[in-house]
Amino acid sequence: MNVIPSHLECVRCGKQYDLSKVRYNCDCGGILDLVRDFSKVDGQELKALWESRWGTKRGLYSSGVWRYKELILDIDEKYIVSRQEGNTRLYPAGKAGEYAGLKNFFLKHEGENPTGSFKDRGMTCGVSAAKYYGAQQVACASTGNTSASMASYADIGGMRSIIFIPEGKIAYGKLSQALAFGGRTLQIKGNFDDAMELVQNVCHELNIYLLNSINPFRIEGQKAIGFEVLQQLDWEVPDWFIIPGGNLGNNSALTKGLEELYKLGIINKIPRVAVIQAAGAAPLAKMWKNHTPYERVMNPETIATAIKIGNPISWEKSLRGLKWCNGVVEDVTEQEIMDAKAWVDAAGIGAEPASCCSVAGAKKLVDAGVIDPEAKVVGILTGNMLKDPDAIIGYHKDELGALGIRGTYANAPVVIEPTLEAVKAAIK
Ligand code: F0G
Predict the structure, then answer these.
(1) Residue 354: CB within 6 Å of ligand 1?
(2) Which of 228, 83, 92 shows the shortest CA–CA distance to 154?
(3) In a domain, 240, yes or no
(4) Environment class of 48 (CB within 10 Å of its CB; exposed 0-12, middle 13-18, buried 19+)
(5) Into how many domains does the chain fold?
């Protein structure tokens, strides 16, 4: 399959498998990584090739994922299902930077992807792999964004999509996308973790291709977030990346990609990575901070519904990456998430609640003295602001009291009489 020789390898026991058959788990139960043999790869040549593709107007290399094809998935173009994903902006954080107490803070807006989240980067790769393996049906469990993305890419790839979502717990922007793209949407009476368990059984029993981030090809595509940030920074490595953590695939992808660039000599410094979880759904943060063994959280709760996950599938991959980069894990409260969101939004950038863990976490880590205020920091905003308008309205109308969240920085709408006097009074 790949031009650079590669195989699947268990993150737990190291057992190797070739790519001839579909596989998500090792016989020991561990999850799998795509591992490449870099012995004959010239990193500088690769970097020059990627630079030559920057700004390509049409075709495969106009995608911000497939620009890095050699380290994504080197399959024949006829299998590739792409929406020119990636190519998202890297913004100076503005007011959100002041809020976090950082002078050199950038926000990588993955909500600018075709379906409004970073999932499109993993999905273009995952759905292409599905096509390569001849799958006709694909499935995922989702808190919303994965399903929206999968349904769209499956449409383009000519596949049927089957979606497992926790009942009544996903943001409407996301549910509406899944329905509109025609995904067969099954609302599970249970939470995301229940849906995740179910979808793995279903895919195994019914021979449906599984597109959660347990799928190693999803992870390969998501590595491109880090690649693109570095290319946007002319390969100058920031001191920190800060990224929200839910099912823990995305941070695993980030560190895997960075490690590959480092091995190839494309970067010569290792940035630190901070993974931020919502306090009500923070099994990794708990384990990290208390130095205790992994333990799932039974009833995860957070307004950041995208990351309302108690038993993240990629926790082992996540830890491995964090150890490599001397990373940290932090958790943030509901109030901290929504206040940070108010600043991301007021900065004119805007993102959904889960995304704003990056900024809430930045502030917390700066306040704690872990991140230097002068450090160069890149926060990943994972999803579009319009995914979850209910959370925005609730905060600005200060109607989230039942969730223990106050509209600290609320910008409430005002009702006035239709007169000049009333307008004057209202805008003075
Ligand atoms: N931010 C957003 C907006 C997400 O949708 C997700 C995950 C994350 C962060 C966390 O990323 O799981 O790789 O640690 N959403 C998944 C979904 C679970 O189903 O859409 P992660």
Answers:
(1) yes
(2) 83
(3) yes
(4) exposed
(5) 1
pLDDT confidence of residue 169 = 78
Q: Per-residue DSSP letters for 11-56?
A: TTT--EE-TTS--SB-TTS-BEEEEE--TT--HHHHHHHHHHHTT-
Q: Quick: pLDDT tens for 24-51.
A: 999 999 999 999 999 999 999 999 999 9
Cα 209 to ligand 1 centre (Å): 19
Tokens at residue 381, please? 């905003």
Determine which helix (DSSP H) or strand (DSSP E) holds 127, and give its type and residue range: helix 119-132
Could you tell me if residue 257 is inside a domain? yes
Q: Establish whether residue 111 lines the binding site of ligand 1, counting it when its CB lies within 6 angstroms of any ligand atom.
A: no
Residue 58 lies in a domain: no
Any ligand 1 atom below 6 A from CB of 306 = yes
CATH, residue 333 = 3.40.50.1100
In a domain, 154, yes or no: no
The model's pLDDT over 62-117, given as tens digits with 9 standing for 90+, comes to: 999 999 999 999 999 999 999 999 999 999 999 999 999 999 999 999 999 999 99
Domain that holds residue 324: 90-115+218-403
Residue 144: CB within 6 Å of ligand 1?
Answer: yes
Q: Classify burial at 287, counting beta carbons within 10 Å of its beta carbon; exposed 0-12, middle 13-18, buried 19 or more.
A: middle
**How far does residue 419's CA lie from ligand 1's centre (Å)?**
46
Q: Ligand 1: which residue has its CA nearest to atom 4?
A: 306
Q: How far is the CA of 188 from the centre of ligand 1 (A)?
A: 18
Indicate whether residue 177 lines ligand 1 (CB < 6 A).
no
Instruction: Give the CA dihedral 359, 242, 280, 410, nearest 10 degrees.
Output: 10
CB distance 117 to 384 below 8 Å: yes
Pairing assessment for the beta strands 272-278 and 328-332 based on DSSP bridges: parallel
Q: For ligand 1, is residue 145 a contact (CB within 6 Å)?
A: yes
Cβ burial of 410 (10 Å; 0-12, 13-18, 19+) is middle
Residue 237 C-alpha to ligand 1 middle, in angstroms? Answer: 25
Token couple for 329: 């894990």
Secondary-structure percent of the chain, ordered helix, strand, coil, rounded to 5: 45, 15, 40
